[in-house]
Automatic annotation (TrEMBL):
Beta-lactamase-related domain location: 17-370
PANTHER family linked: BETA-LACTAMASE-RELATED, BETA-LACTAMASE-RELATED DOMAIN-CONTAINING PROTEIN
A Pfam match: Beta-lactamase
Lineage: Bacteria, Bacillati, Actinomycetota, Actinomycetes, Mycobacteriales
Highest rank taxon of the organism: Bacteria
UniProt-listed InterPro entries: Beta-lactam-related (IPR001466), Beta-lactam/transpept-like (IPR012338), Beta-lactamase/esterase (IPR052907)
UniProt name for this protein: Esterase
Length: 384
């Protein structure tokens, strides 16, 4: 398979193309796509490599791929659009629209708490099957019945999967649609969140050799050694919040049943082009009123994350640059968005009017030396 990228890049963004092609050539990527919009115009739209290692199927212009937690920004936008349409605020109690949620001291929890990972419900306390996870109402009911791990609003910890069913219930109760249905109708008809009859053929997720997956001090980002050690200990402990938050349901994102379930925290299947276009529309005022977006990306939470064990920061559902979302220096003060497991990233910058997405199918980890998106983002800012 050639390491040459297909698609186009404006001459001013030639460095982005060079960085992307280097990733394909040196094996950092198996298959991937990158897209950049500036001032609403596509200046980079590149793809290449292999979509399915088993068959050798090539990555084509319309190859979609699971994007994991990049999904959360789309789900957050759906909720914010519902709130905008209905004139509702993020700080009203959840119990005002979801009375059943008020159990076990959760009566004061707000939508803002759900969207900033402060709800105290980062794990599902009983095993859930993939089939059951497709029932948004049942998943919401399960979480409504749970006792929070910490008092809502007092701390924050990454709700890796439960974020989607919690915030998604706001969308469902106010619009009558699941997040997936609402997204395709209002945010972008190429943003696929569930629905076996509509899902495109997706790239198959692969993992690098074990030696390339090991976390090490040599490859760690610039965060304290004790933080890295704490995270590694959590990763090795099956009872840690870190593991419990991300491993129930037990599932593979190569399983069509999982993708069809449309998990609203992790199930988005799309192309880099369509994810970047979503962010371009968002900062262009097409999806949310500019004032509402600025309010949503204002920092509401920053500090040590109870689940991830390192610093994380959030606006209303959007992740902000932090130890858990490391971006090049020129972007650190102005971007918002969300990374996904394995290296995918979607983000936007209101000040520079830039939207970016990188979607790979070879899962790598930042603490094991993954700098693919970081290098591409740096090349984008070099071109501005």
């Amino acid at each position: 398979m050639s390491s040459a990228a297909a698609g186009h890049a404006d001459p001013a963004f030639a460095e982005v193309k060079a960085v992307f092609e280097a990733g394909l050539a040196d094996g950092d990527d198996l298959g991937a796509a990158v897209a950049v919009f500036v001032d609403g115009h596509a200046v980079v739209d590149l793809w290449g490599g292999i979509a399915d290692r088993r068959t050798g199927r090539p990555w084509t212009r319309d190859t979609a791929c699971p994007t994991f937690s990049c999904t959360k920004a789309v789900t957050a936008t759906a909720a914010l659009l519902v709130a905008q349409q209905q004139g509702l605020g993020a700080d009203e109690p959840v119990s005002a629209w979801w009375p059943e949620f008020a159990q076990h001291g959760k009566d004061g929890t707000s939508l803002s708490d759900l969207m900033t990972h402060r709800a105290g419900l980062p794990v599902l306390e009983r095993p859930v099957s993939v089939a059951a996870s497709a029932d948004a109402a049942a998943m919401a009911d399960l979480l409504a019945r749970q006792r929070p791990i910490w008092a809502p609003g007092t701390e924050h910890g990454y709700h890796a999967l439960t974020f989607g069913w919690l915030v998604g219930e706001y969308v469902r109760r106010h619009s009558g649609m699941t997040v997936g249905e609402f997204t395709r109708r209002h945010l972008g008809d190429r943003l696929f969140l569930g629905g076996a009859d509509t899902l495109p053929e997706a790239a198959r997720i692969s993992s690098p050799p074990p030696e390339q997956r090991a976390w090490s001090a040599e490859h760690a980002p610039p965060i304290p050694d004790d933080t890295v050690s704490d995270m590694m200990a959590a990763l090795a402990d099956p009872e840690s919040l870190f593991i419990r938050a991300s491993s129930n349901p037990v599932a593979s994102f190569n399983d069509p049943e999982v993708l069809a379930a449309g998990w609203p925290a992790a199930g988005l299947v799309t192309t880099a082009r369509d994810l970047a276009r979503f962010y371009s529309d968002l900062i262009g005022g097409t999806l949310l009123a500019p004032g509402h977006l600025r309010e949503a990306i204002a920092e509401r939470v920053r500090g040590r994350d109870r689940v991830l064990r390192l610093e994380s920061a959030f606006g209303l559902g959007y992740m902000l640059p932090s130890q858990n979302f490391v971006v090049p220096e020129p972007a650190q003060r102005t971007v918002f968005g969300h990374p996904g497991a394995g290296g995918s990233v979607g983000l936007a910058d209101l000040e520079h009017n830039v939207a970016f997405a990188f979607v790979p199918n070879l899962r790598r980890d930042w603490l094991a030396g993954d700098r693919r998106a970081h290098r591409l983002i740096a090349a984008v800012y070099n071109a501005l």
